[in-house]
Design a protein that fits this description.
By secondary structure, the protein is mainly α. The protein has one domain: MetI-like (MetI-like fold, Orthogonal Bundle). The two termini are about 40 Å apart. The protein is about 70% helix and about 0% strand. The longest helix has about 35 residues. The mean pLDDT is about 85. The chain is globular and about 70 Å long.
Length: about 280
């Protein structure tokens, strides 16, 4: 009996150690970014575990005159917010159609949607740049939103279609027996039950669109339209040979901390959306 009780305890300790190593591995870069952001600009080469003394100089430089970081944050919010809303609208209807309705070439359509997510974004930059130049979309929000939407939709459709398939069809049938049309049953019965999955999809899409870089860098060169990630990459130091390490770390903290807070606040909803699908 002693051996049988020690074995599970040993496995539990090994599991906890493994989880701890993964957590440390993921958090150390973020910790070092925060520490570097609060160092004085002259202490950029200091390797101490904590800043000494603490300084807000890097944050003041980020929001200094001529940087335009507030505008860049607003641009990131516009692009990420619009991408998320459009992804939810289009993805929800597409996922419901694939999950619930029967039509010709249904499996082919689903396969094409998933196949589009396999193309690397960098391979599409040149064709998109040529297309957007011809139609006059360079230096516009839609030049960043539409490509981000095309990359976010396959994941949204796949996630929500799986969620809709797990819902009993009897829910809609009972609603239609009570006099509702299929559209009314979808709005009044299915959508409220699909809220966890939609919320999870929205969070994942927003984070992906907020972190997008290569498309925003390629399609926009107007400083008033550039997103925060592009502006951070273009930070310059006192000379062309000087890298503003501390300023970039401070800007990284500013664009990362809100996402971390949102995930921590809504982590239960996110997990519920990823694992749910039935009726509680």
């Amino acid at each position: 009996m002693d051996m049988s009780t020690k074995a599970p305890t040993g496995r539990k300790w090994l599991l906890n150690i493994g989880v701890g190593i993964i957590v440390i591995y993921c958090l150390v870069p973020f910790y070092w970014m925060v520490v570097s952001a609060f160092r004085r600009p002259n202490d950029v080469g200091d390797n101490s575990p904590l800043p000494s003394p603490w300084s807000l100089g890097n944050f003041e430089a980020v929001f200094g005159p001529g940087v335009g970081f507030w505008r860049a944050l607003l641009n990131s919010l516009i692009v990420a917010g619009a991408t998320t809303i459009l992804t939810l609208i289009v993805g929800t209807f597409a996922a419901y159609t694939i999950a619930r309705l029967d039509f010709r070439f249904k499996n082919i359509v689903a396969g094409v949607i998933i196949a589009t997510s396999m193309f690397p974004g960098v391979a599409l930059i040149v064709p998109l740049l040529k297309l957007f130049t011809d139609i006059g979309w360079i230096n516009t929000y839609q030049a960043m939103i539409v490509p981000s939407l095309s990359f976010a939709l396959p994941l949204a459709v796949w996630t929500l279609a799986t969620f809709f398939r797990q819902m009993p069809k009897e829910l809609e049938e009972a609603a239609m027996v009570d006099g509702l049309t299929r559209g009314q049953a979808f709005r009044q019965v299915i959508l409220p039950l699909a809220a966890p999955g939609m919320f999870t999809t929205a969070i994942i899409t927003f984070i992906a669109a907020w972190n997008e870089f290569i498309i925003a860098l390629s399609m926009v060169n107007d400083k008033d339209i550039q997103t925060a990630n592009v502006v951070i990459a273009q930070f310059t130091g006192a000379s062309q040979f000087d890298s503003p390490f501390g300023t970039k770390m401070a800007a990284g903290v500013i664009v990362t901390v809100p996402l971390v807070i949102v995930v921590l606040i809504f982590q239960r909803r996110i997990i519920a959306g990823l694992t749910a699908g039935g009726v509680k």
